[in-house]
Write a structure and sequence with these properties.
Shape: globular
Radius of gyration: 17 Å
Helix content: over 70%
CATH superfamily of the largest domain: Tetratricopeptide repeat domain
Number of domains: 2
Number of strands: 0
CATH architecture of the largest domain: Alpha Horseshoe
Strand content: under 5%
């Protein structure tokens, strides 16, 4: 459900979108959003949501209004093309990030988890082999268990840690060197149980640090991965947990 924050468009974009994509890659998110919205189509709205989410991830403090904008763009993209998987992913990501700000009770009241799962199921139906969709489902499963507990998560949402780990594992088979997916995996497990999954987290962060970053967003995540890896190796659990919470978008 989270930050995936945080994802590149999967489908080929028309010529008008090239400028928006280039601006996104350079980290010029406000300009990218304006250019993408001018397309006034599903791909443009999805690109705007992507840039809004990337800009949100770059902030020192979470911004609920910014997430509301990302949600609006994602919903506009879905309305224009319900089968565009990127738009469904961005909606799920946005709802997950909003939950971190408004809290679990408010999120449950508005059924953010259920709506996010519906969006991810729609994305999976449109693109069953997408590593982005699978990684998003992996994060959703583990986060539901983290917030609701294993029993309630399975009872109400059929969410389990095993399903989440399996989703991530399948995603990595297709995209083994993807910085965003590996970082998300490490952050998700860190928030859930950094002690139990210490080895997996360290391995994922190490891969992120050693990979090639080709966008401003990927470079941001790579820098954060380097910082988290250093804290993890130092063994200061409190400092590590605090940094994870910050990068997860909690107030």
């Amino acid at each position: 459900m989270k930050r995936l924050f945080l994802l590149a468009l999967l489908l080929a974009a028309p010529a008008e979108a090239e400028t928006a994509d280039r601006l996104y890659a350079d980290g010029k998110y406000d300009e990218s959003i304006k250019t993408a919205l001018a397309q006034n189509d599903a791909i443009g709205f999805a690109a705007a949501a992507r840039s809004e989410l990337a800009e949100e991830a770059s902030r020192d403090q979470p911004c609920l209004d910014c997430l509301e904008r990302a949600e609006t763009y994602a919903r506009q993209a879905i309305a224009a093309d319900p089968k565009l998987p990127d738009a469904q992913i961005y909606l799920a990501v946005t709802l997950g990030l909003k939950e971190h700000i408004v809290g679990v009770l408010v999120a449950r009241l508005h059924d953010y988890p259920g709506e996010a799962k519906d969006a991810l199921d729609a994305a999976l139906a449109a693109d069953p082999g997408s590593p982005w969709v699978l990684a998003a489902l992996g994060g959703w499963n583990i986060e539901i268990v983290n917030h609701a507990g294993a029993g309630l998560a399975d009872l109400f949402y059929s969410a389990t840690v095993k399903r989440g780990l399996d989703n991530f594992a399948t995603a990595f088979k297709t995209a083994p060197d993807n910085i965003v997916l590996r970082y998300q995996y490490a952050l998700t497990l860190s928030d859930y149980d950094a002690v139990r999954f210490h080895g997996e987290i360290e391995g994922a962060l190490t891969k992120v640090v050693g990979a090639t970053a080709d966008t401003a967003y990927a470079r941001l995540l790579q820098g954060r991965a380097r910082e988290l890896l250093e804290l993890l190796k130092e063994g200061d659990r409190a400092a590590y947990a605090a940094r994870v919470q910050k990068y997860e978008g909690y107030p």
